[in-house]
UniProtKB/TrEMBL annotation:
Keyword Oxidoreductase: yes
Binding sites annotated in the UniProt record for FAD: R160, T162, W173, S257, H260, R289
Gene Ontology cellular component list: endoplasmic reticulum membrane
Source taxonomy: Eukaryota, Fungi, Dikarya, Ascomycota, Pezizomycotina
Disulfide linkage: C63-C68, C387-C390
Bias (Basic residues): 99-110
Protein name, as recorded: Endoplasmic oxidoreductin
Originating species: Mytilinidion resinicola
């Protein structure tokens, strides 16, 4: 039994595929209370309206439904203290001026050493506002001294069915999957051969399956990965042929497809019946989008394993982090909750072993840069989403995955001195993305139960 207790050791034997679900059953209420009940994690600052879609004119893709709208917080007093401009310490702290770009660079190279007084944590004083740290997998959305951030209560704007569909959303998903074109498009001759690649997932490829198994160190996840690969997933877009042996490209695809699957699960779970006006789970929606596509569900689990690993890896970072609102008691509670969560993650690489990626001699760095740049582009594509609420959650989740990738590939568990800084928004996005995945796992479990009941399966 995996108990969700601080310091609980989740052994390999414990971390089976079904145990990911049991672990989730235990984590879900706790994680959800962090994202819903703490000011720090229930609010997000982002640039929701002021960025133009950098890839195409987005006028046709706008969603006019009420369900697409986001309520932003216009009044300063509605913004929790921890997020209010003067409390953020974003521009200046108790004794420090907001540093200019040059100073920020210097500070990154050489962290602050007691200059601000013994009890003032760095994160209380300055939020780095660089355009982009070179190690980021995402384009920061809220940064820059002149950036007009929108404050949004994530709790009051739940991710659910909005009615955003058609050519607009199709174009965005297409653009996102196109970022996965590390490889050349299939030649027509190959398309008609017996080895025709299936959609974006490529043909059955057991060499790649073996490599993936090294990333997912856990038997039933492996079984599911292998069966998904054997079936060949399909993105439904232009067939793309993958380099046969490139694990990293497959991981990229799985992250994107898993995110897509997670979004689908939420909109099917919280679905608006437009005839009755009632919000309720829509089983047909689930069957059409997920149940009949085990590869998509497997990609969602893949993302959950990836995020669990990343959250486990920020334990030290959280221990050192200052949650600096004006209410030290609340800060203490928030910190204790996150620390407890991070400590309960399966230890080491038990579930997800990122160390097998970007390892190939000669190509590692270039491939990693390529991977990073492509993921950054996915985050830019979010400005093309023509529905405010979808854009909000699309941005939160791409930032969450971007943060997870940064933690996985740039953080050293044993020596945090060279770890890149994590912005407040990155931490919030990471935990909210974990919460979204956790909710997806719960929803899928309940959808399966509904199918069993309908079909009379005991
Ligand atoms: P889509 O989901 O649009 O998928 C397009 C094609 O992609 C499918 O035909 C299929 O071939 C392929 N595909 C589908 N799922 C996967 C997968 N997991 N992996 C690989 N390939 C796949 N709608 C809401 O109601 N609420 C939201 O909060 C919301 N958020 C969104 C956020 C973003 C960033 C985007 C781009 C869209 C969002 N949408 C949201 C719209 C929603 O995702 C769908 O696009 C819409 O419901 C239309 O669905 P569809 O059946 O046409 O297929």
């Amino acid at each position: 039994v995996c108990e969700f207790e601080p310091g609980a050791i989740v052994s390999d034997a414990c971390a089976s595929y079904s145990t990911l679900e049991s672990l989730n059953d235990a984590i879900h209420p706790y994680l959800h209370s962090i994202t819903q009940n703490t000011d720090f994690f229930s609010h997000y600052r982002l640039n929701l309206y002021n960025k133009k879609c950098p890839f195409w004119s987005d006028e046709n893709g706008m969603c006019g439904n009420r369900a697409c709208a986001v309520n932003t917080l216009e009044n300063e007093e509605d913004i929790p203290l921890v997020w209010r401009a003067h409390e953020l310490g974003r521009l200046e702290g108790p004794t420090a001026q907001h540093p200019g770009k040059r100073q920020q660079k210097e500070r990154k190279a050489k962290p602050l050493q007691g200059k601000l007084g013994e009890n003032v944590g760095e994160s209380c004083v300055v939020e780095y506002d660089d355009e982009c740290d070179e190690r980021d997998f995402c384009v920061p959305d809220d940064e820059g001294a002149s950036a007009k951030g929108d404050y949004v209560s994530l709790k009051d704007n739940p991710e659910r069915f909005t009615g955003y569909a058609g050519a607009g959303s199709q174009q965005v998903w297409e653009a996102i999957y196109r970022e996965n074109c590390f490889s050349k498009p299939a030649r027509p001759a190959e398309l008609s051969s017996g080895n025709t690649p299936l959609g974006g997932f490529g043909a059955p490829n057991f060499e790649a399956a073996n490599a993936l198994q090294n990333v997912l160190r856990e038997r039933s996840v492996q079984a599911s990965v292998q069966s998904a690969i054997a079936q060949g997933g399909s993105s439904g877009f232009d067939p793309i042929e993958f380099d046969d042996d490139c694990l990293e490209k497959r991981v990229f695809y799985r992250v994107v497809s898993g995110m897509h699957a997670s979004i689908s699960s939420h909109l099917c779970w919280d679905y608006l019946n437009q005839t009755t006006g009632q919000w309720s789970p829509n089983l047909a929606c689930y069957e059409q989008r997920l149940h009949n596509f085990p590869d998509r569900i497997s990609n969602l689990y893949f993302n959950y394993a990836l995020i669990l690993r990343a959250v486990g890896k920020i334990k030290q970072h959280v221990a050192d982090y200052e949650f600096c609102s004006a209410d030290p008691e609340q800060d203490q509670i928030t910190k204790a909750m996150v620390l407890r969560l991070a400590s309960a993650m399966p230890s080491g690489a038990a579930i997800f072993d990122e160390s097998v990626m970007f390892r190939e001699p000669g190509s590692g760095v270039t491939l990693k840069e390529d991977f990073r740049n492509r993921f950054r582009n996915v985050s830019r594509i979010m400005d093309c989403v023509g529905c405010d609420k979808c854009r909000l959650w699309g941005k939160v989740q791409t930032a969450g995955y971007g943060t997870a990738l940064k933690v996985l590939f740039e953080f050293d568990e044993h020596d945090s001195s060279k770890d890149p800084p994590l912005r407040r928004t990155e931490l919030v996005a990471l935990l909210n993305t974990m919460d979204r995945l956790s909710h997806s796992l719960s929803a899928i479990k309940q959808f399966r139960r509904m199918i069993d009941e309908r079909d009379g399966v005991k």
